[in-house]
Each structure stands twice: as C-alpha cells, then as structure tokens.
Design goal:
Blueprint lengths: L11 E3 L2 E5 L5 H8 L2 H4 L13 H9 L6 E7 L10 E7 L4 E8 L8 H12 L6 E7 L3 H9 L3 E10 L4 E11 L2
Parallel strand pairs: 5-6
Antiparallel strand pairs: 1-2, 2-3, 3-4, 4-5, 6-8, 7-8
Helix pairs in contact: 1-3, 4-5
Length: 179
C-alpha cells in the first residue's frame, strides 16, 4: 500500500475547534458539504454538481509537499462536534503573501465557526506572511463580515469566475497586514 506524504502543518487552536491538516478520511464529509449548491456557488473552484473523485483529488493535492495551497480542516471532535465543519486555506502568492479561503457546512452558517477559523489562522500566521488577501462574492455579505471581523481592510471591487455558476461574479477584495 502506498503511503501518503503529509505536509507538515501546525495544528491551530480556536475556541470551539482545531484547525488541522487534511487527511484522506475527511473526503466523505467534505464531499457531502461541497456537493451542496449553496457552498459550491460561493467559491471560485468547487464545481456543481460535484464530480466523483473531486474531493479526494483536492485532499491528495493539499497533502503534497510541493502544493501551493496549505489547507486545514475545521475539526470540532475535541469539543463534541463533527470531525469536519469546513475548511480554511492559505494559497501561497509571491512576496510573502497568501490568499485566504474558507467554507463551512451550511448547517453551521451564522454560528461563528468561519470567524473563529479565520481569526485563529490570522493569529497563528502559519506561513509567516506579511500580507493575507481575501476575496468574497458580493452576494455573500456573511463572508465579507468574517473578513472585516478579523481586521481585514476593504481594498476594492473586482470579479472572479465561479465554476459552479459558470460565470464571472462581482467580488469584494480585502487585505490584512501582518507583522
């Protein structure tokens, strides 16, 4: 049996969860949540309907040492919750910068889990970034609040292509300066 290489990423503590590196056993819950049209349409990369194997391929890529994106599962098992509530990621950019991304299971929307994860990620700054960017679709004000509550500053409007929507969608872009 082939053993997967696991990228060394820290486990980051948040008030009601830990952020931990992805593992193959996360695929079932991640696929359940990511296959929900409401989740897919608020991301740029998740297709809808979700093709078989998409999440397994995403996890395998995230676990590769050469991956340009560090991904953590929001895991609340130590707090009596689910093993996967959602994910939070940092996509590496040049000049010691990253772009943060996150999504949470729809049943947990408006419960503060996304804010806790983003705040914990920013406080830990596991990639040692000087700057973290965030971008949200303008029809998702809840995600915009997650960023502004974490101290991100509004930079401006743009647009990004959503695979699930099959269209360009207006976005708001935010910036957080660190250290």
């Amino acid at each position: 049996m082939k053993q997967e290489t696991i990228v060394p990423q820290p486990v980051i503590e948040a008030p009601r969860m830990v952020l931990r590196p992805l593992r193959p056993s996360d695929a079932g819950l991640m696929a359940l949540y990511a296959s929900d049209k409401r989740v897919a349409e608020m991301t740029t990369t998740i297709p809808h309907p979700l093709p078989p194997g998409t999440i397994e391929a995403f996890i395998a890529q995230a676990m590769r040492p050469e991956s340009d994106e560090a991904v953590w599962a929001m895991d609340a098992t130590d707090f009596g919750g689910s093993e996967v509530l959602g994910v939070v990621s940092l996509k590496r950019m040049d000049r010691n910068q990253s772009e943060i991304g996150y999504w949470v299971a729809p049943a947990l929307w408006n419960t503060g889990f996304a804010s806790e994860a983003v705040n914990a990620m920013v406080a830990a700054n596991p990639l040692g970034n000087k700057t973290i960017f965030g971008s949200v679709f303008q029809d998702n004000p809840g995600s915009a609040r997650v960023l502004t509550n974490a101290g991100f500053e509004y930079l401006g409007d743009a647009e990004a292509f959503s695979v699930a929507r099959g269209a360009k969608v207006p976005t708001w872009t935010y910036l957080k300066r660190l250290g």
